[in-house]
Design goal:
The protein is mostly helical. It has 7 helices and no strands. Helix 1 packs across helix 3, helix 1 crosses helix 7 and helix 3 runs antiparallel to helix 4. It binds protoporphyrin IX containing FE.
Length: about 240
Amino acid sequence: MAGKLSTKFILRKLHQITGIVPLGIFFAVHMFTNAKAMNGPEVFNDAVADIHHLPFLLLIEIFGIFLPLAYHSVYGLFITREARNNISQYGYGRNWLYVFQRVSGIFLFVFLLFHLLHFRWGLFASIGLTGTAVAGNADQAFSIVAGDFQNLAVLAFYVFGVFATAWHLGYGIFLFAVDWGLVIGERAQKATLAICAAVAFGLFAAGTNAAFSFVRPCGLLPQVFCEQPAESVPALRSEEF
Ligand code: HEM
């Protein structure tokens, strides 16, 4: 019994750690790379090419992204199935955040599966999306994403995906800090929750602006934040707003 408990304990801790390192770090770096789209197609394509030119990329992807992501997602679904949500007992505050952590996790499972199969492997041309994978086509990376984001539903789905990921990570960092005993006491926990919410908002804002940069020059920000000429990004057709 003790052995069984400790295995569960280790699996649980591993689940928390994989969510922050490497997945949380990957997400922040990914949003930063996407934000380069603010400076135009050439800058973004060069950023993607730089990633593709990394030595040992396949090993980095397998051990740094795909395996941790698979473990975190599948074990996360397992935890969600086991969890007994108590919002009916305490229908406010942290219990709702706890429920949203699980709901966002389930959504992310679907979102990331779609995202990887589409941009990484070029699937879903049959439903009107670009059929060219970004992997191996860095010189077309911007136009592949921009082509899909011309469809407002796809753009909205991505903005929601960024929101869910940012919140899931931000609240995940808070849960990690509390569970590992890094913040003890009501006031310290409230302050930590505020910092985590700010981190989540920052990542959401950066990622959302990056998403809009594929359809509008400089995304939602004024041109003064960007170096590209305004005409280098295809503007979203006005009837789609
Ligand atoms: C506006 C939102 C997003 C855009 C435009 C975007 C774009 C891309 C592109 C173009 C690729 C292919 C890169 C390549 O093959 O070199 C990619 C891969 C990937 N994206 Fe996103 N992404 C977005 C949001 C997200 C979010 C929210 C996550 C959640 C963590 C995420 C996770 C991943 C993963 C795990 C990969 C595979 C990385 C690899 O194969 O090396 N993406 N994304």
